[in-house]
Structure formats: structure tokens, C-alpha cells
Design brief:
211 residues, mainly alpha, Endonuclease Iii, domain 2, Endonuclease III, domain 1, globular
Length: 211
């Protein structure tokens, strides 16, 4: 089934075009967004990031120096804001103390950096891989609910373990971070327009490739 991945990508790209995802002015902003977007719609994350920017508290040094209560108030739109404030500040301190900035942290070998990210409290596989791919330009495919729904649609087992499903995508495509970036963004676009919880198959560009 992984042989379908190339032709399906082309069909998605032909329909939707480049997605310019992940939005963010810096690798640090992208990493912050990846942590904040856990279990919440992106529009709420945009509001939180906008609020942090407005108060000039989005930078790693500014965030570390801020009062935790202030951060909580600014990111209320993302839900679980007490927990996410703690995760953000812990992550900021870790990056600052060990590397100085996130660019240096993400400059290492992919699996080594991934293991380090996963060792940090509150960072799971999807969040770690989002940071690696979108902030660090590492060739690693992000698996989320949209990816699983898409996989099931084209005949790939969507219930398999996260890393097993990730391996299916990575082995079926050229190992290129730009390609992985665009492909995942297109899958998200497809999920919002067609592969919903209640699928809208009419006019779906993936329909000819269904299992």
C-alpha cells in the first residue's frame, strides 16, 4: 500500500497546492506552537501565540524571565493552560541551560534529538516529531489523527503503533523533510475538507486511491 503514497501526494498537491505550514517566525515559535497545540484547535494556539508576542514574552529568554501566572493568562485559549505553562517553562529552561537556543539542540542527529525530546515531561511522539520536522527540518513523518484517518482511507492499517505507521510513510517516500512537511500539511487540509469523522467523499482527490 505504501506504493500509493507518491501518486496520492501528487493528487493532493495538484488539488490544494503548497500549504506553507507550519506558521512561525522562528524555530522556537514553532516549538512553542507544537507544545500548545496538544488537544486543541490551531486557531486557539494562534490566539495564545499572538498574546505572547503582544506582551513580548514569546522569546525563550523573555519566557524564562516571566511570571508563570502571566504566561497562564496569556495562553488560556489553549486549554490545560496550567499544565502547558509548566511544560513550556520547563522546556525553555532545558533548552537554554543545555544549548542556549533551540537551533543548537535541533542540530544533532535525528534519532538522538528525538530521544532527548521524548525524555522531557509532556513531550510525546507527535509533539517531538512536529518539532523535529517543522522547526528542525529533520526527515521524520508526523503521525496524528488526520494521518491515521488518511492511512485507513488508502488501505494502510491506521491502528498500528505510532512508530510502525511512521515507518510506513518514511519507507514509501523519498526521505526529504520538505516533502514530509508538505505531505503532512496536505493530509491535514484533506482531513479538514474531506476526511472528517463523517467523511465527505464527493470530490475528494484521494477517492480514486481508496482501498
Amino acid at each position: 500500500m505504501s506504493k500509493k503514497l507518491g501518486p496520492v501526494y501528487q493528487a493532493l498537491f495538484d488539488r490544494f497546492g503548497p500549504q506553507h505550514w507550519w506558521p512561525g517566525d522562528s524555530p522556537w515559535e514553532i516549538a512553542v506552537g507544537a507544545i500548545l497545540t496538544q488537544q486543541v484547535a490551531w486557531k486557539n494556539v494562534e490566539k495564545a501565540i499572538g498574546a505572547l508576542k503582544e506582551k513580548r514574552l514569546l522569546g525563550i529568554d523573555e519566557m524564562i524571565g516571566a511570571d508563570a501566572g502571566t504566561i497562564k493568562e496569556l495562553i488560556r485559549t489553549v486549554g490545560f493552560y496550567n499544565q502547558k505553562t509548566a511544560r513550556l517553562l520547563d522546556f525553555a529552561l532545558y533548552v537554554k541551560n543545555h544549548y542556549g537556543n533551540i537551533e543548537k539542540m535541533l542540530d544533532g542527529e535525528t534519532l538522538k534529538v528525538r530521544g532527548e525530546l521524548l525524555s522531557l515531561k509532556g513531550i510525546g511522539r507527535e509533539t517531538a516529531d512536529s518539532i523535529l520536522l517543522y522547526a528542525g527540518r529533520h526527515p521524520i513523518f508526523v503521525i496524528d489523527a488526520y494521518t491515521r484517518r488518511f492511512a485507513g482511507c488508502i488501505g494502510i492499517d491506521p491502528e498500528q503503533d505510532y512508530d510502525d505507521l511512521r515507518a510506513v510513510f518514511e519507507s514509501g517516500l523519498e526521505r526529504n523533510p520538505q516533502l514530509f512537511n508538505e505531505y503532512h500539511a496536505l493530509i491535514v487540509r484533506l482531513g479538514k475538507e474531506h476526511c472528517r469523522t463523517k467523511p465527505l467523499c464527493e470530490g475528494c482527490p484521494v477517492f480514486p486511491f481508496r482501498k
